[in-house]
Design goal:
This protein has 300 residues and is α+β, with helices and mostly antiparallel strands. The chain has one domain (57-294). The chain contains 4 helices and 14 strands.
C-alpha cells in the first residue's frame, strides 16, 4: 500500500484540486512591460546607429573625392604651359604672376581664390566633367571645388614655396546643369566677411548675407584653416561652428560652399536662390611646391 502524499502541493495543484497550467494575468502583464521597455531602449539605438553610419560613409567618400581632386589639380597645374596661362586672363594668369607683385621686398600675402567650381566666371582650369566624381561622369551628383593661394613662408623676395590647395567635396541636392532640363544646382564658393566669437560666426557684408549654411566649411582665405558650420539660422547670417580657430583681427574674409538654383530668384533681392543646406561633404588642405618656370625675379 502506497504511503499517502505529504506536504503542500501548491506547486502542482491549485486550490480545489485542479492542476495549475500557464501564467497568471499579472505575470503576463509584468513580462509584457519588461519586453516593451527593452524594445524601446533598443529602438532608440537604431536611429543613432544609422546616423553614425551615414556620417561615416559621408566622411570616407568625401575624403576620397577630395584626395582625387587634389591629385588631379596637381597634375593639371604641372602640365600647364605659358600659352595656356596667357590664354586665360583671369585667375590662372593672376596665380602665375604672383611672384612679380612685390611689397617691401617680399611677396605680398595673397588670399585663397577660386580655382574651380560651377560658377560661370571660374578659371579655365578644369572642366565640369573633370570636377565630377567619378571623373568624367557628367550626370553624377558628386564632385569637388578647388581654392588656391601662393605661400611664402621664408619671406625671401626672390622665391616662394609654392601653393596651398583646398578642396571641398560635395553631393548635390539638384541635378547638375548638363543632366536634364529643369531645376538644377550649381555648387560654388562664395566670399563672405565674418566676425568670429568663440564658436559663433556672424556674416555682415552685404554680398555675404544669407550664405551661412549648415554643413558648409568656413574657410579662412588668409591661411586656409577652416571649421564646419554645424548650425545656421534661417536667415543664413548667424551660425555655430564645430570648433574655434584663431584669426587675426575682429573680422576676416572667408569662403563658404553653397548650392544655388539659377532658375529661381529671391523675390526680395532678385538674386539666385541659395538652397537651405550646404552640399559639402569634406574639406582637405594640402600644399604643392610646383613653382617651376613661373617663379619670377623682382622687377621682371
Amino acid at each position: 500500500m502506497m504511503a499517502p502524499a505529504t506536504g503542500n502541493m501548491s506547486n502542482e495543484r491549485a486550490r480545489g484540486g485542479r492542476v495549475r497550467r500557464g501564467f497568471s494575468l499579472a505575470e503576463l502583464m509584468i513580462s509584457i512591460g519588461i519586453l516593451a521597455v527593452g524594445l524601446t531602449m533598443a529602438g532608440t539605438l537604431f536611429p543613432a546607429a544609422l546616423h553614425a553610419g551615414r556620417e561615416s560613409l559621408k566622411d570616407v567618400l568625401g575624403s576620397i573625392i577630395c584626395e582625387n581632386g587634389l591629385a588631379l589639380a596637381k597634375a593639371r597645374w604641372a602640365s600647364l604651359t605659358d600659352e595656356e596661362f596667357e590664354a586665360d586672363s583671369g585667375a590662372l594668369k593672376d596665380f602665375r604672376d604672383v611672384p612679380k607683385r612685390l611689397l617691401d621686398g617680399t611677396i605680398r600675402p595673397e588670399p585663397l581664390k577660386v580655382l574651380a567650381d560651377d560658377g560661370p566666371d571660374r578659371p579655365n582650369f578644369l572642366t565640369g566633367a573633370e570636377l565630377a566624381y567619378p571623373l568624367g561622369d557628367e550626370t553624377s551628383m558628386l564632385g569637388f571645388v578647388l581654392m588656391m593661394r601662393p605661400v611664402d613662408d621664408d619671406k625671401e623676395p626672390k622665391t616662394f614655396e609654392g601653393y596651398q590647395l583646398v578642396a571641398t567635396s560635395y553631393r548635390r541636392s539638384l541635378p547638375p546643369p548638363f543632366y536634364a532640363p529643369g531645376p538644377h544646382g550649381l555648387v560654388v564658393c562664395r566670399p563672405i566677411t565674418g566676425n568670429l566669437s568663440g564658436e559663433t560666426v556672424n556674416s555682415y557684408r552685404k554680398e555675404g548675407d544669407g550664405l551661412l549654411r549648415a554643413g558648409s566649411p568656413l574657410i579662412e582665405r588668409a591661411t586656409g584653416s577652416f571649421a564646419t558650420i554645424t548650425q545656421a539660422q534661417l536667415n543664413g547670417v548667424n551660425g555655430m561652428l564645430d570648433h574655434t580657430f584663431k584669426v587675426e583681427g575682429s573680422s576676416s574674409p572667408f569662403f563658404v560652399v553653397v548650392e544655388i538654383n539659377p532658375l529661381e530668384t529671391d523675390p526680395n533681392t532678385g538674386e539666385k536662390l541659395v538652397l537651405r543646406l550646404s552640399p559639402a561633404m569634406a574639406t582637405m588642405v594640402t600644399r604643392t611646391g610646383l613653382t617651376g618656370q613661373w617663379v619670377r625675379s623682382p622687377g621682371e
